[in-house]
Design brief:
6-stranded mixed beta sheet, globular, 4-stranded antiparallel beta sheet
Length: about 120
């Protein structure tokens, strides 16, 4: 059974940093690309960053490029998102996931509980 547990969110001021973590289980973590998504109420979930399973190549949404860094530790089945220079537009619930097409095959429309990031002065 796939399980994704996000943590590390909180309330910060603009310009500050946070590091999110995602503990994954129920699948062979090292075999799959992993992504971070975020969602605000009333909006579609947005893909924020992706890291490959093999060569560590990364991709980012334009809105976070240069400020966020995705990384992974396959020995710990854990995904990370380092978020620097946060601004109020980054306020959202953040979720991690392996490829959605696989999650839907394994578990249906499963998401972890997410971790809330609030950026406010």
């Amino acid at each position: 059974q796939v399980q994704l547990v996000e943590s590390g969110g909180g309330l910060v001021q603009p310009g500050e940093s946070l590091r999110l973590s995602c503990a994954a289980s129920g699948f062979t973590f090292s075999n799959y690309a992993m992504s971070w998504y975020r969602q605000t109420p009333g909006k579609e979930r947005e893909l924020v960053a992706t890291i490959s399973s093999t060569d560590g190549s990364r991709g980012y949404a334009d809105s976070v490029k240069g400020r966020f860094t995705i990384s992974r530790d396959n020995s710990k089945n854990t995904l990370y998102l380092q978020m620097n220079n946060l601004n109020p537009r980054d306020t959202a619930a953040y979720y991690c996931s392996p490829p959605r097409v696989l999650v839907r095959l394994w578990e249906g429309d499963y998401w972890g509980q997410g971790t809330q990031v609030t950026v406010s002065s």
